[in-house]
From TrEMBL:
This is Protein SlyX. Residues 50-70 are annotated as: Disordered. InterPro entries: SlyX. Residues 61-70 have a biased composition (Basic and acidic residues). It comes from Polaromonas vacuolata. Pfam families: SlyX.
Length: 70
């Protein structure tokens, strides 16, 4: 009789753990999906920036970006 109760208790505990694990996997899947969407957006932005012509059409010096008082 005790063996049956122990088995039922262990089974219940395993079902609870499996339920928590399933919820965690679902949450992680949503996070990964969102992060992949963000990565895709950033990759498109980087590609667009690389393809965009620069203001002067040639390579700029970092000194060009200094304020006039320097």
């Amino acid at each position: 009789m005790e063996n049956s109760q122990t088995t039922n208790t262990r089974l219940t505990e395993l079902e609870i753990k499996a339920s928590f694990a399933e919820d965690l996997i679902d949450q992680l899947d949503k996070i990964i999906t969102r992060q992949q969407q963000q990565i895709d957006l950033l990759m498109r932005e980087v590609t667009a920036l690389r393809q965009a012509p620069s203001d002067s059409g040639s390579a700029r010096s970092l000194r060009d970006d200094l304020p006039p008082h320097f």
